[in-house]
Amino acid sequence: MSEAEPGHAALAVQLSGALKELHRALIRSEIGDDPALQNPYTMLFALIGDPRFAWMGPLSQLIARIDQQVADEEIGDADILAALHGEVAGLTGAGLTGGKGDATFRMRHVMALQKEPEVGLATGRLRKVLAKLPPLPEPE
Question: What is the reported pTM?
Fold first, then answer.
């Protein structure tokens, strides 16, 4: 494997940061005013085991994978960034994905966008980072 290019790793870190910001906003939107989830420990256990939060699993896994790839210096070329761009686009519905991606996540994301302004702001920031990544491959 070739040595990772520093600029690619920096973009991956920016992408991870924007995804984490979106994740936090989605969590806050899902928790809402539920008094049972205002305690940080109760919230943590709910995030881990409560089925209401299971739809966020693909986002959590993507963030963890990007962070691991950065730590392992595996973000070596533009193709990897383009693939990550495609995964994020499929998850959030940003861009042309040919119907691929997680429909449940996209539906819940749209619901959160309508409910919580911070989700909209985080989504906008994520799209700005996506614009810096290599473009999505054209659908065949």
Answer: 0.85
